[in-house]
Amino acid sequence: MLKAIPPILSPDVLKILMEMGHGDELVLADGNFPAASVAQRLVRCDGNGTPALLDAILQVLPLDQYVTQPVALMAVVPGDLHKPTIWNQYSEIIGRRERAVDFEYVERFAFYERAKRAYAVFATSERALYANVILKKGVVY
């Protein structure tokens, strides 16, 4: 255990966050996401929900301040009537830990392709639909 490090951030998670550079992207994947088939580097965060992991990560990881949309979400598939309420939680967490941001909404298959290029994928047990999120790392001043 370490002081000031949220215990949800495992040694594997911290290693990945430390290795990432400015502009690298990180995927927080929900339980339905094909994480193992798209990830260059996969970290299992089983038993954890995405909001709790997002909150902990943003305590140590800065979002990219040089882009207009440092956070991307998987857009709802056209015709799907689901309204992702988890996005409101993400907005609240990000606003509290960083700053208010406008989300980028990425079509499902384009999101998968972008995830393939991401530095890492953290696979959670999140059960909410459309709970996948991409974070672009910024710089520490």
Q: What is the succession of H and E elements?
A: HEHEHEHEHEE
Most strands sheet = 6 strands, mixed
How many domains make up the 3D coordinates?
1
Number-wise, the strands total 6
Structural class: alpha/beta
Taken from the alpha-carbon principal axes, the silhouette is globular
Q: From the 3D coordinates, which CATH architecture would you assign?
A: 3-Layer(aba) Sandwich
Q: What would CATH call the homologous superfamily?
A: RbsD-like domain
Describe this structure in words.
The chain is α/β, with parallel strands linked by helices and 141 residues long. The protein has one domain (22-128): RbsD-like fold (3-Layer(aba) Sandwich), CATH 3.40.1650.10. The protein is 30% helix and 18% strand. The protein has five helices and six strands; from the N terminus they run αβαβαβαβαββ. The chain has helices at residues 11-19, 35-38, 50-57, 86-97, 108-117; strands at residues 25-29, 42-45, 71-74, 104-106, 120-124, 133-136. Strands 2-5-1-6-3-4 form a six-stranded mixed sheet. The longest helix is centred in the middle third of the chain and has 12 residues, at 86-97. It is globular. The mean pLDDT is 97.
Question: Which descriptors apply to this entry?
Answer:
141 residues; RbsD-like fold; alpha/beta; 30% helix; single chain; globular; 6-stranded mixed beta sheet; 5 helices
